[in-house]
Amino acid sequence: MRLTLSPFSDASFDLVNARQIEGVIPTASWPALLIEMARITRPGGIIRLTGNEWNITNSLACETFMEQYLQGRQKFGLSHAPDSRSFGIIMMVSQYLRDVGCVNVQERTSFLDFSAGAPQHQDGYKMIMIGSELAEPFFLAAGTTTQAAYNDLKRRLSLEVADDSFRGIIYTVTAWGHKPEEP
Q: Is residue 62 within 8 Å of residue 165, measured between CB atoms?
């Protein structure tokens, strides 16, 4: 598959950055995407990739949502993992950079705590609720649930994530590397 980031010409950018695109780029397209990213990066420039491993929570509704979402990602070729237990992208970002010849590849890991009482809780709650609305067609098309079961899941998500006992963390990896200088 030929992927192009037209109309950008070769060596156009000092930095090419892709953040959290693992949910929309089919796994099979990543090598071609990275080749194209390398094409538009100037020699000595940086390619940077950031990916998430989805949330880990103490909410049965969140964990059910995640299980069904991961099954759908697997079905639609959006998973970098061999099964539907994770996204798998955080273990791949550095390798993708090395595969296109990047040098001085580095990684930084981080996490976001969106537990009840944490500063990010309200934003995390909104993200989950908006995400559950937007993802509904995906879940139904993937066949991981029924309309009635999904409506109930959204209701339970709303209650459990808003509860004072809710705990949740999202893990992130950012990897970057330099396109080699031309000899």
A: no
